[in-house]
């Protein structure tokens, strides 16, 4: 029996020029195009949910009751999956969340030499022509935990979404993990 694949194969027209140089015709430019949107809550290793509070400019993992989840106040995320014309390390995604009838998207900004996560009012774009501070690469957390993921920031390779304990909060941050150990603070 032969099993056929339904995977699309991108073929590019080529031609040989003088001195047998290879030229590619009609190549697409590098771009990200929104493909689908998933709606999920984001849990950390302690089973706490990520909650966004734009009025306080804060995103932190908190203990949340089932009743509070149903209220949908900054806890149900839209994960916008993008397709791309270039092979990348992981699925490119962007995050947005609804809070009191307003939509906020997650982005990263450099402030005082440090990368800070922000939630800004607005929608994620359908197409992104180049690099963007809203794109993360979704990767499986480890080969043996296929339901847990980590998210690498596209503009600072090696930096991942994680949480950091600050007082009574577990704030959402960007973090460069140690190469020698599995960092559970990045597991979502």
Features:
mainly beta, 1 helix, 188 residues, 14 strands, Trefoil (Acidic Fibroblast Growth Factor, subunit A), eight-stranded antiparallel beta sheet, four-stranded antiparallel beta sheet, globular, single chain, IL1/FGF, 49% strand
Note the gap between the termini. Answer: 40 Å
C-alpha Rg (nearest Å):
20 Å
Q: Report the principal-axis shape.
A: globular
Number of helices: 1
The chain-level mean pLDDT equals: 82
Family: Belongs to the IL-1 family.
InterPro entries: IL-18, IL-1_fam, IL1/FGF
Organism: Sylvia borin (Garden warbler)
GO biological process, one term: positive regulation of cytokine production
Task: Summarize the structure in words.
This protein has 188 residues and is mainly beta. It has one domain: Trefoil (Acidic Fibroblast Growth Factor, subunit A) (Trefoil), CATH 2.80.10.50. It is 3% helix and 49% strand. The chain contains one helix and 14 strands, in the order βββββαβββββββββ. The strands form three sheets. Strands 3, 6, 7, 8, 9, 10, 11 and 12 form an eight-stranded antiparallel β-sheet that branches. Strands 4-5-14-13 form a four-stranded antiparallel β-sheet, with no helix packed on it. Strands 1-2 form a two-stranded antiparallel sheet. Strand 4 and strand 5 form a beta hairpin. The longest helix is centred in the middle third of the chain and has 6 residues. The chain is globular. It starts with 13 loop residues before the first strand and ends in a 13-residue tail after the last strand.
